Amino acid sequence: MRRYAAYQAGGESQIKQKIFAAARRLFVEKGYHNTSIPDIVTEAGVSIGALYHYFESKEALAKAIHIHAVQEFLQRFHRQVKSKHTTRERIQAFVEMMFSWTEEDPVMVEYLLYARPKEVLDRAMSICSEEGLQAVKEIMIEGMRRGEVKQVDIMLLVAPVSGTIIRLIELKLDGLLSYPLTEVAETAAQIIWEAVRA
Amino acid sequence: MRRYAAYQAGGESQIKQKIFAAARRLFVEKGYHNTSIPDIVTEAGVSIGALYHYFESKEALAKAIHIHAVQEFLQRFHRQVKSKHTTRERIQAFVEMMFSWTEEDPVMVEYLLYARPKEVLDRAMSICSEEGLQAVKEIMIEGMRRGEVKQVDIMLLVAPVSGTIIRLIELKLDGLLSYPLTEVAETAAQIIWEAVRA
Amino acid sequence: MRRYAAYQAGGESQIKQKIFAAARRLFVEKGYHNTSIPDIVTEAGVSIGALYHYFESKEALAKAIHIHAVQEFLQRFHRQVKSKHTTRERIQAFVEMMFSWTEEDPVMVEYLLYARPKEVLDRAMSICSEEGLQAVKEIMIEGMRRGEVKQVDIMLLVAPVSGTIIRLIELKLDGLLSYPLTEVAETAAQIIWEAVRA
Amino acid sequence: MRRYAAYQAGGESQIKQKIFAAARRLFVEKGYHNTSIPDIVTEAGVSIGALYHYFESKEALAKAIHIHAVQEFLQRFHRQVKSKHTTRERIQAFVEMMFSWTEEDPVMVEYLLYARPKEVLDRAMSICSEEGLQAVKEIMIEGMRRGEVKQVDIMLLVAPVSGTIIRLIELKLDGLLSYPLTEVAETAAQIIWEAVRA
DNA sequence: GATGAATGAGGGTTCATTCAT
DNA sequence: TATGAATGAACCCTCATTCAT
């Protein structure tokens, strides 16, 4: 049985992983700036020195967490979404993937969604841009080529797909949805599909 | 011609307005925590004392900016959106309102979108929650009562409406859209409409 | 009927007096450094400008309060103590004067006792030194000349007189004495007398 | 030869002791509020961070200094004063203890005498109250029980004892006494004794 | 590898004082 | 006279980072 959220499957020091997990938990819980190095090392049960042994700086730690989240996203995306054949199926698979991931590891998804690049990182790296965006974009481009979706500017198709999914996850994470997201995955996928289909 | 974004039309000290505008600009540009009080007062061309004369603290300043943005949003929403009669028209009006507002005052809209309550504020107040959410929710509830939109959990309708709009604005603000948002307002509204209509 | 504690009997602006009284009250209550100019002007119900019109600075205000207290002390001392003829009578009169003054205007006496020159003033001016000390010293010098008190270093006589009185007032101001000081004036005077008499 | 004033004989960091000593010296010299953190760390030759590593705040530092002084007082009191048998001997021992302590460590005694709780501390802790007061009170209560001292309200006996001693120390610290206090300890004790004896 | 004492720049904030009105 | 908005030096404190052990 694979543990998806585990940081760097092979050969990583256990201490490094403890730091990584503690930092991600605290960054999500209290925000990057409200989390101090002492907070992280206390939560992780390691020393300050250990943290600086494994990560160059607090920012580098945040960056590592982010990169890991993006990579995890891309892995899941390619494995679960790109393998589908029609755009309709891909949208459904994307919704299902994001919803089940949220239920599996809400901390990680929240980090992915909310990390504001400007606050910490020098490059945008959230699902809201770059890699995440690109992934959705590719699906819609292919869908458009096949005539499955509307012939409009590509971003007008990307927006309802990622926007709707992100919004529902946010609502769930904010406690405004009483039911599990996975229960409405099919309905959500259908709604999104009706928005974009030709 | 009315300037909507002006902070408190009447009777406000010019210095207070300069501080307010500078702070909002910097908070959006660099993030709340990466903006220092010296940054703000330098940008505004006033003294530290002046800032603390008008605002109790940095946090209170952020709160004031946020409240103002939310009120501006609600005003525009009620004036431009609630006055329409059908759900289809309301969605179109909402899209148009948000897109033209973004073009008119991108800094303000960006603040509204990105302000992460957990980082600064004790209550969530973004368009992503509470008032903003409530506004969209009311439209969809009425639309459902009239049988104009799908009979599903209300959040499944709220998500594509606000999610798509937010996403498009984000893309625009990130420079990923070459054309003015207002040009695609009608198309966007139609896409959203197809997602939610019965 | 004379009001002893009134600041500068004649011709003083009422505003100046309000500031003076408010400042003394607050300095005693919260300490010099924990009392801000806004605190004083609020308590006095006047403007900041008014304060600076009548007093050069916060320190000058403290100095004025102190000088006034010392002058008040010296006046009372000369009127009520120096007029007595024997050292025994003078000690009794001194005790009675200080005790009744404390009951009449505890705020003023507390200020006199506790004002620590080093915290505010450049010159020592408390009853613990200079004028206050000198006053007691003169009595004891005369008493020694007349052979009424012990022939020892003068300070060994000054100490029990002022020390005992100050200590009892402190105990009273700290709420550690349930009865009025005036009730024990005679006993206290007798105790002091037995300490110093030849 | 024992060094009484040393802060926490065993196991304390040298840096902590340097901060402690520097702070006490400066608090006495210039007053708590006129002593800044930079003043203290410069005087101690350590960094700001070191100060905050060892003491939670400036106030906590003051509190630690105060508690230490009070404990030192109580130790000396019990060792040198309580061990005596008659009230006359105890008074003499108390005078001698305080006078020799003053000569040994004037900074510490001055701190003990002048620390104004209201300015910094939430509980009164000076020799002028609580522990210090209690110590003297106990002696006089026992003396009264034995019929050695006057049968009057206990505070009327406490006042001349502590008042006279404090006053003489103040005079010495203010430079108004040319001779060493220890030289007059016996005379002072006799004077106090005559005040309180039955 | 692992530790945590030590550093000090920079943070937000206060408040005595000035001065145009 | 009288006002209080405006000033900015100085305050206390935090915390990312270093380095001797």
From TrEMBL, chains A, B, C, D:
DNA-binding region(s) from the entry: 36-55
Keywords of this entry: DNA-binding
Annotated SUPFAM superfamilies: Homeodomain-like, Tetracyclin repressor-like, C-terminal domain
Any one GO biological process: regulation of DNA-templated transcription
InterPro entries found in the cross-reference section: DNA-bd_HTH_TetR-type_CS, Homeodomain-like_sf, HTH-type_TetR-like_transc_reg, HTH_TetR, Tet_transcr_reg_TetR-rel_C_sf
MF term (GO), any: DNA binding
Aminoacyl-tRNA synthetase listed as a keyword: no
One Pfam family it belongs to: TetR_N
Record-annotated HTH tetR-type domain positions: 13-73
Superkingdom, taxonomy of origin: Bacteria
Keyword DNA-binding included in the entry's annotation: yes
The protein's name in its UniProt record: Transcriptional regulator, TetR family
